[in-house]
TrEMBL record:
One Pfam family cited in the UniProt record for this chain: Pyr_redox_2
Domain FAD/NAD(P)-binding, residue spans: 1-289
MF (Gene Ontology): electron-transferring-flavoprotein dehydrogenase activity; flavin adenine dinucleotide binding
Coiled coil region boundaries: none
The protein's name in its UniProt record: Ferroptosis suppressor protein 1
Length: 365
């Protein structure tokens, strides 16, 4: 049995780790290393932290890892095609391509570890040098980045701009919202809510340095450095043509109760590229990966697969600076600084991620 996993993010790695000792596995990713994206904000502020956020695939998966970019799913032939024309056959296929967005909260699909480390070294030096910083986008990434900057550099002027009145996600409860806003206020992060940045093209043209950030309501904010944390889009290049009729209007693959792509036998979609009506977070992608891996093992044994239960409970942990944050539990309970600091603030889950890939995290330099 040959299982191919396209995409080595949180969901793809979770599936691959569950399957690698039970089948012939090929994990395909355009990068040479897993990027622990939850550490991107800390990597942007603390020089050298990014070294903890890249975990090379080969020591974990050996010959089961293949570096390359998939550009077509040949479902009838049960093959995937890579850029360059090479094809890889499969018995089962798991598509886990995730989402992309602007640096520093996301890395380009083709950015390898060496390049990524250089990029984070550069942005951390820019943050260190800047006195007035504007963070554009108040999702989880923007909130965490703003908090990390002010926690490490308490004299910097940090402004967070978000087009909605609700930060992070509109599915979190009011208590979580209040905890997030209180934490930002405590750290001294200024917030501009309900206003959208209106001159993004101008900011890009100036590489977001020494700019005036303008909003649609007329506000103007001078910044030595502006950092975009907006515009996440599904990475659909692997299937946008070959499975064009199987996607929704966001580019996510429509799946059935088993996370199998509707009408496409033995092909599954997990994580951000899956159409499940859930909060798209790393833990959700990991749950998808583990569930599909378990079902593939059942199918290989001639047993019936189990349907996936949609997780309607909202759970989220934000580290807003090293010393605090906000946590919403699945039962709706909200915890503040001490709990966020205990479970995430110290290392933003880097140690846990290395351990999940059966690796030992390198010591601090």
């Amino acid at each position: 049995m040959h299982v191919v996993v396209v995409g080595g993010g949180y969901g793809g790695v979770a599936a691959a780790m569950k399957l690698k000792d039970h089948c012939n596995l090929t994990l395909i990713d355009s990068r040479n290393s897993f990027h622990h994206n939850m550490g991107a904000q800390r990597s942007s502020v603390e020089p050298g932290f990014a070294k903890k956020c890249f975990i090379s695939y080969e020591p974990t998966f050996g010959k089961g890892f293949k570096q390359g970019a998939v550009n077509a799913i040949m479902a009838q032939e049960k093959k995937v095609q890579l850029v360059g024309g090479e094809t890889v056959p499969y018995d089962f296929l798991i598509i886990a391509t995730g989402t992309g967005g602007p640096f520093p909260c996301k890395l380009g699909m083709n950015v390898n570890e060496k390049e990524g480390l250089a990029f984070y070294d550069e942005i951390s030096q820019q943050v260190k040098a800047a006195q007035k910083i504007v963070v554009i986008g108040g999702g989880a990434a923007g909130v965490e980045l703003s908090g990390d900057i002010r926690d490490d550099y308490k004299t910097k002027d940090v402004t967070l701009i978000h087009p909605r009145e609700i930060l992070v996600n509109d599915k979190v409860n009011e208590s979580f919202q209040k905890t997030v806003k209180d934490r930002l206020e405590y750290l001294g992060v200024k917030t501009v809510l309900g206003e959208r940045v209106s001159n993004m093209d101008e900011l890009r043209a100036k590489n977001f340095k020494n700019v005036v950030v303008k909003t649609n309501k007329g506000k103007k904010i001078e910044a030595d450095l502006a950092i975009p944390c907006t515009g996440l889009k599904v990475n659909y290049d692997a299937y946008k043509t070959s499975l064009a009729g199987k996607t929704n209007n966001e580019g996510r693959l429509k799946v059935d109760q088993f996370l199998q792509v509707e009408g496409v036998k033995d092909v599954y979609a997990i994580g951000d590229c899956s159409s499940t009506p859930e909060l798209k977070v790393a833990t959700g992608a990991q749950a998808h990966g583990e569930h599909v891996a378990a079902n593939i093992k059942l199918l290989a044994e001639g047993k019936e697969p189990k349907p996936y239960t949609i997780n309607e409970k909202i759970s989220m942990c934000l580290s807003i600076g090293r010393s605090g944050g906000a946590v919403q539990m699945g039962n709706g309970w909200v915890m503040g600084d001490w709990f966020a600091r205990f479970i995430k603030g110290k290392d933003v889950f880097t140690g846990m991620t290395w351990k999940a890939m059966n690796r030992k995290m390198p010591p601090d330099q």
